[in-house]
Amino acid sequence: MFIFNILNYKSIKNILIMTESKKQELVKKHLNFTITHDSNMIERADFVVYTSTTVDDYNIYVATRDDQNINITEDVYYYNEDLPAGVLSEVAFWNEDLEYKRSEEMVVYFEEDLYDESDMGDFLIEWLGENIDEVIDNAEKLELSDDEVQYLKETY
Questions:
Q1: 108 with 33: CB under 8 angstroms?
Q2: What pTM was computed for the model?
Q3: Cβ distance 52 to 28 under 8 Å?
């Protein structure tokens, strides 16, 4: 019983230290971007992701820097599960291209239902697991506590 309580305590402590939501926010902070679902932010966003419908009633997914000049071959996706990789690719480009940057932090408008349907949150957590050393190396800038760093080391 005592061992079970210790294991249960450790499990609960780890959940409190780093929730899935906190992991997602950690990745966004590390990569220098934020996601909003507020449609009033579309005009001010650096990148927008939304669903559109074709004339014959098929859903397509648009991920673009400029929703007034959509490039069919570069900005339109047929499968929503491809969007998360496209968004992170654009974030990487934004962080490297000084001419493209309008602010210190990239703002991505992501239609809320589409965010959930495309599993963007899970994709961010998966990215964290694949890039954990890079994130831990950036722990001070990310303002991670010692407990959080230890949790990430043990978990990934």
A1: yes
A2: 0.86
A3: no
* Sheet strands (E) in the chain: 33-36, 47-53, 59-64, 76-77, 106-110
Buried b (16+ CB within 10 A) or exposed e, 51-85: eeeeeeeeebbbbbbebeeeeeeebebeebeebbe
Token pair 């990215």: residue: 127
Judge whether 49 and 87 are in contact, CB under 8 Å. Answer: yes
Rounded CA-CA distance 96/81 in Å is 25
pLDDT tens per residue across span 2-23: 554 554 445 555 556 789 999 9
Q: How confident is the model over 98-110, as pLDDT tens digits? A: 666 666 799 999 9
